[in-house]
Write a sequence for this structure.
């Protein structure tokens, strides 16, 4: 059971994991260096612990202690309790969801193990916005995809905002990073997947026909703005487009992923 500790000093060194949460670059450096990530909100914290991530500590306002008692019973990590004004001084923002947890990262699995039982996977190239990454994980999990693969430069799906937007889907959706960007799509094809890239290329066909008859599908999504790199666009087995009304050529990548996932899992 967690030890509940009431904190009155926002400078308490035991709160180091929770400082400066709005400084994205600083947090990415610190969290990678120390092998941790932050989860925010009662539901997300609970999902992280239930998924087997080990808490380093928890931080919450007094009114959340009782509601999260079942989570506290599952860990011996300290639970720091402080009023909301002090929590805001520590984190740099109003913790309106009431609870935070610092958790230990797990080693990333191999690509082979992530793909072993998968029939439908999402493949993300250089999507750098944490909100988009979180939303894509949520869409993929909700609509029946089995796994996510990320290029080396994709945003961290365990960053606090990505987790929050994805409602903790990253805790249950198998995922890992691709070690070889250049050969990523040919490697998936060799593993038995048909790679279908969402793109505005001239030979792209409506996604309904592009995924028709595909047994094992790897749906490929490109970065915000420029979309897929020429290498990935050209090395995909098929190119697909979501048909649009005249004057609008594309959707935000998170919205496009939801539409494409919905169509793809009904193939």
């Amino acid at each position: 059971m967690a030890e509940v500790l009431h904190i009155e000093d926002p400078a308490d060194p035991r709160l180091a994991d929770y400082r400066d949460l709005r400084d994205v670059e600083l947090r990415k450096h610190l969290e990678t260096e120390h092998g941790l990530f932050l989860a925010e909100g009662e539901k997300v914290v609970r999902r992280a612990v239930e998924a087997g991530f080990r808490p380093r500590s928890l931080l919450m306002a007094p009114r959340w202690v009782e509601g999260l008692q079942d989570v506290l019973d599952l860990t011996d990590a300290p639970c720091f309790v402080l009023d909301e004004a002090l929590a805001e001084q520590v984190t740099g923002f109003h913790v309106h969801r009431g609870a935070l947890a610092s958790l230990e990262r797990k080693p990333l699995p191999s690509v082979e193990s992530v793909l072993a039982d998968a029939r439908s996977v999402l493949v993300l190239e250089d999507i750098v916005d944490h909100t988009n990454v979180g939303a894509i994980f949520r869409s993929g999990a909700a609509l029946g995809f089995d796994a996510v693969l990320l290029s080396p430069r994709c945003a961290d799906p365990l960053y606090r905002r990505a987790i929050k937007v994805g409602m903790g889907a990253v805790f249950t959706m198998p995922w890992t990073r691709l070690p070889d960007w250049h050969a990523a799509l040919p490697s998936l094809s060799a593993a038995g997947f048909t790679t279908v890239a969402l793109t505005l290329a001239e030979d792209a066909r409506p996604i309904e026909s592009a995924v028709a008859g595909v047994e094992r599908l790897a749906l490929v999504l490109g970065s915000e703005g420029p979309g897929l790199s020429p290498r990935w666009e050209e090395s995909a087995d098929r190119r697909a487009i979501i048909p649009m009304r005249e004057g609008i050529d594309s959707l935000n990548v998170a919205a496009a992923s939801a539409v494409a996932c919905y169509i793809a899992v009904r193939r």
In short: The chain is about 30% helix and 20% strand. The mean pLDDT is 94. The radius of gyration is 20 Å. The longest helix spans residues 130-142.
